[in-house]
Design brief:
With 216 residues, the protein is an alpha+beta fold. It has helices spanning 2-17, 50-77, 82-108, 172-186, 188-191; strands at 23-25, 33-39, 137-142, 146-150, 162-165, 169-170, 202-203, 214-215. The chain has five helices and eight strands; from the N terminus they run H-E-E-H-H-E-E-E-E-H-H-E-E.
C-alpha cells in the first residue's frame, strides 16, 4: 500500500540521516519543518504509562491490525460505500505503519542521542536499542503556524503562558489515521445512507388490483 511505503521510507530516511532532536526548515519556511522526535506511545506523541503500558499498547495495535484485515474484507464483500472502504484502508495503513515501528525499530536501529548528536545506524536484528515490542515511533512533520505568542493575561488557566499552534509533531501514519477518521465523521450520512425501501407491490395481471397496487 502506498501510504505504508511512503510512511516507512520517510521514517527510515529520518532515522539514518537525522540525529534525535534535529530540525530543518523545509524550503526555508518558518511554518513547515522536519523535526525528528520519537515517542513511546500513541499517535501525535500521546503516551501510555511506562514499559507495561508500551507493551499493552503495542499488543492492542497488533490485535487491531489483524482484526482490520478481516473487517475491511467484510466491508468489501458487503459492498459498502467506496469512500468508507478507502477511509477504513487509510486508518488500517496508519495503524500498521506505527505498529511496525513499535515491533521492530528497537531491534534494528541504534539509539540516537540528542546530546551526542549521533545518527542511528541499522544493526543486525536484536542488537538495537530495545527489545521486541519496545520500539519507539518515529515522528518528523512539524507545522508551527503560530509561534512565540502568548495567551492574554485574562485567559483562564493559561493566561500569560506561551502559545503555539500547531504544536504536535507527527508522521504520515498519524496523518493517514486522522484523515480516515475525520472523513468518515464528516461524510457519515453519505457513507451509511440507508437504501430506500421499495414499497410498491406487484401482482399478476389476472389478480385483483386497486389504486395502491402496481400491475406488472
Amino acid at each position: 500500500m502506498a501510504i505504508l511505503l511512503v510512511d516507512q521510507s520517510l521514517k527510515f530516511y529520518i532515522k539514518t540521516n537525522f540525529y534525535l532532536g534535529q530540525e530543518i526548515k523545509v524550503f526555508g519556511l518558518e511554518w513547515f519543518r522536519v523535526h525528528f522526535v520519537e515517542n513511546e506511545g500513541m499517535a501525535w506523541g500521546w503516551k501510555m504509562g511506562g514499559q507495561w503500558g508500551k507493551i499493552v499498547l503495542t499488543l492492542f495495535r497488533l490485535a487491531a491490525v489483524i482484526a482490520g484485515v478481516f473487517i475491511i474484507r467484510d466491508f468489501i464483500k458487503k459492498k459498502n460505500h467506496t469512500g468508507f472502504i478507502v477511509c477504513s484502508a487509510l486508518i488500517f495503513a496508519g495503524a500498521l505503519g506505527n505498529l511496525l515501528d513499535s515491533l521492530f525499530y528497537g531491534l534494528i536501529f541504534q539509539d540516537s542521542d540528542p546530546y551526542m548528536q549521533n545518527i542511528a545506524n541499522l544493526v543486525p536484528a536484536g542488537k538495537g536499542y530495545a527489545g521486541f515490542l519496545h520500539g519507539k515511533v518515529v515522528d518528523m512533520l512539524y507545522f508551527p503556524l503560530i509561534r512565540d505568542a502568548h495567551y492574554p493575561s485574562w485567559f483562564p488557566v493559561w493566561g500569560g503562558e506561551e502559545f503555539e499552534f500547531f504544536r504536535p509533531v507527527f508522521n504520515i501514519a498519524d496523518a493517514s489515521i486522522s484523515t480516515g477518521v475525520i472523513t468518515i465523521l464528516v461524510f457519515q450520512n453519505r457513507f451509511f445512507k440507508k437504501k430506500e425501501e421499495n414499497n410498491n407491490v406487484t401482482v399478476e395481471t389476472n389478480a385483483p388490483v386497486d389504486d395502491n397496487v402496481q400491475i406488472q
